[in-house]
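Build the 3D complex.
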Amino acid sequence: MRSEFETELNNLHIRFSEMAMMVNEAIKKAVTAFITHDQDLAQQVVVDDQKINNREMDLEKKSFEMIALQQPVTSDLRMIMTVLKASSDLERIGDHAVSIARADLRLHEKSTLPDVEKLIQQVSQQVEAMFTQAIESYLQEDDQRAIEIAQQDNDIDRLVQKIKHLCIMDMKNDAQIVENGTSYLSVTNYLERMGDYITNLCEWVVYLKRGKLADLNCRDDQQNRKY
Amino acid sequence: MRSEFETELNNLHIRFSEMAMMVNEAIKKAVTAFITHDQDLAQQVVVDDQKINNREMDLEKKSFEMIALQQPVTSDLRMIMTVLKASSDLERIGDHAVSIARADLRLHEKSTLPDVEKLIQQVSQQVEAMFTQAIESYLQEDDQRAIEIAQQDNDIDRLVQKIKHLCIMDMKNDAQIVENGTSYLSVTNYLERMGDYITNLCEWVVYLKRGKLADLNCRDDQQNRKY
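Done.
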């Protein structure tokens, strides 16, 4: 028979996974809204973010209670700590989805940049894929896979640089697209930052499994630490 | 006589405060480097960030150990939880100081925007002041003051909007400043985001004192929650 504590721990795990799904949905919707210029969908992302914020506070509250009342040790404590810290990363990814949605709402339909949009779609697909895989590695407690997934952030960063360069060139050539161009740049920056937070999620999978804190957030231009 | 646990808790508190001072230094240096176009100072911020990241990992490790081995309760546990969560916010503020420093390093001296620079200096002074006050409220465990400090984020957001508008107008009028203009916009965005993280720090001061999680991150256009 399951103890009450085991049931609570399992509930915490389920509620964290649900939060991850809510954030995944927010990313998809925000990017789709940006590409299809769907302002209603963008507005939905902004409104739904409150649910993500509430879930983070709910997970924090539950984690604190479990630590205070049950005084868990070793792997159980690690599980709670992972939820506690990784939920902040999820919440921030959700915040960035909202920032993308707000950029959608500011966009003027008349002067869009189709080539830049295509690349933004490409990088957002990379971000979505990395996010899904990071959550899978959490569910499977697969630390080795999490370390590999974190490397994808370098590909995202490279594509981001390419988009920024193209966008600035376009803006230099046509003053009419400067305003929209800054929105495209912002969205690109938010996607880049999401990649960093997903890397943090991968670090928490490593902690969950090994009980050791890892720094997987290495830039291409820095020496890579080996794991 | 102080127990070993009390000494450890006090050390944790001191090491967190030191981390706050390191981050404060990073903000000041990054903004000074941006305003004075001092590339050496900007480079220093990038290099010094590793110390901030190491300190965060060190605080996480120590917090986990203290919870696992000492099983603290009530206010002691709250103190450890605050350090654990607020250190992530500090680390992210440090990351944004690095992003400002990297924007400094990309800036071409020839086509700067003096008017925008003045406003950026003004908003950065607001961010620095808000940060210093938030840390003071933590040291004094003054939850009421923390709630008041969080309101300053609205002033920051308003000034940020003004800067963005001015910057885009300048970029539309002169293609030569488009590239630098995007750096100015990025720096403005980073300062805006710092304000959000400082608001989070204020929330942790409320938690430390009241044991309740607060959401102080209200936008002007949202209904304010009362505390």
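Chain B is about 80% helix and 0% strand.
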